[in-house]
Write a structure and sequence with these properties.
Elements (H helix, E strand, L loop, with lengths): L26 E2 L4 E3 L5 E2 L3 E4 L2 E4 L3 E6 L2 E6 L11 E10 L2 E5 L6 E8 L11 H5 L1 H4 L5 E9 L5 E5 L5 E2 L4 E4 L12 E3 L4 E5 L4 E6 L20 H19 L6 H11 L10 H20 L2
Parallel strand pairs: 3-7, 10-12
Antiparallel strand pairs: 1-6, 2-5, 4-5, 6-7, 8-9, 8-11, 9-10, 11-12, 11-13, 14-17, 15-16, 16-17
Helix pairs in contact: 3-4, 3-5, 4-5
């Protein structure tokens, strides 16, 4: 006989108020009146009708001096210069690669905007153009930085630093860009034995922490050695923790992921995605984050 899993409802634990510092956010739905004051300027996600400023998307109202805009809660990635992104090569073109970065348009990585293997600094020649598929080919994953934004909203990327480049063995998790918290660094080596790249575009890369970083490779050599079972289990647990945090609408950054990982340790990896387990570990994570905020 096949085993049947039965799950019974349990009483929810009380959790402290989770309002952000600085008060509640002003949330609006399409058609809601934001303000009737004519002194405000109209920003993204708003329009003016009968001298009233009205929201055109569902989201949080943001004010910068007299400019009012609505930041949508669920949207495609709108890139800004300096953002860290994880992307997938979709096409090899003349002197450039097209990259899928979860934005409205494909991003562009120019041949001149990347390090050559070995970190050579020289002009790109016809031989380099012919060897483009040796560097990056379709379906390869890369980490990069947004160098500029074109007038149509497409992004120009660069991988000139040795911390960017082709990604090797790991797991890709795709979430909404609004869940990734902006920080000074988006490359994190977690103490549990794995590392994460939190792309501002909602693509999150989890991979085993390398024992030694190869500085001379120019970001192009990828290790194809078998990943030990212990590392694979850590990566799988982190992946399920990130899915749990996003399902319970909690922001993703290094501390929240680590707290969620620690809260999930009493449970098996496959059980983390059960609704009641997910709720339990995210409640504990949220409470620890609130305690941490209270200590500052």
């Amino acid at each position: 006989m096949a085993a049947i899993t039965m799950r019974l409802p349990v009483a929810r634990k009380a959790v402290g108020p989770s309002a952000p510092r600085g008060g509640e956010k002003h949330l609006v739905a399409p058609g809601d009146t934001i303000t009737t004051d004519t002194g405000y300027m109209r920003g993204h996600g708003t329009y003016v009708d009968e001298e009233k400023l009205i929201a055109s998307v569902a989201g949080a109202v943001e004010r910068v001096n007299k400019l009012v805009c609505v930041k949508a809660l669920k949207t495609r990635y709108n890139g800004e210069v300096g953002d860290i992104v994880v992307g997938r090569i979709t096409e090899v073109q003349q002197k450039r690669w097209k990259v899928e970065t979860n934005s409205r348009l494909d991003s562009v990585l120019l041949l001149s905007s990347m390090n050559l293997p070995g970190g050579e600094l020289r002009r790109r020649s016809a031989e380099d153009e012919l060897a483009m598929r040796d560097y990056l080919q379709e379906a390869d994953l890369i980490s990069a930085e947004v160098q500029s934004v074109f007038s149509d909203g497409a992004l120009s990327l660069h991988t000139r630093s040795l911390k960017y480049g082709k990604l090797g063995q790991g797991v890709l998790v795709q979430v909404s860009p609004s869940f990734v918290k902006r920080q000074k660094t988006h490359f994190h080596d977690l103490p549990c034995g794995a590392s994460v790249i939190l792309g501002n575009n909602g693509f999150i890369w989890i991979y085993p922490t390398p024992e030694q970083k190869d500085e001379e490779a120019g970001g192009f050599t990828t290790s194809l050695e078998p990943v030990p079972l212990s590392d694979r289990e850590v990566i799988s647990r982190l992946r399920n923790c990130i899915v749990a945090l996003v399902t319970q609408k909690l922001m993703l950054f290094d501390t929240s992921i680590l707290y969620c990982y620690e809260a999930s340790l009493p449970h098996q990896i496959k059980d983390i995605l059960k609704p009641e387990v997910m709720e339990e570990i995210v409640l504990e994570t949220r409470q620890r984050l609130l305690d941490l905020e209270g200590n500052f």
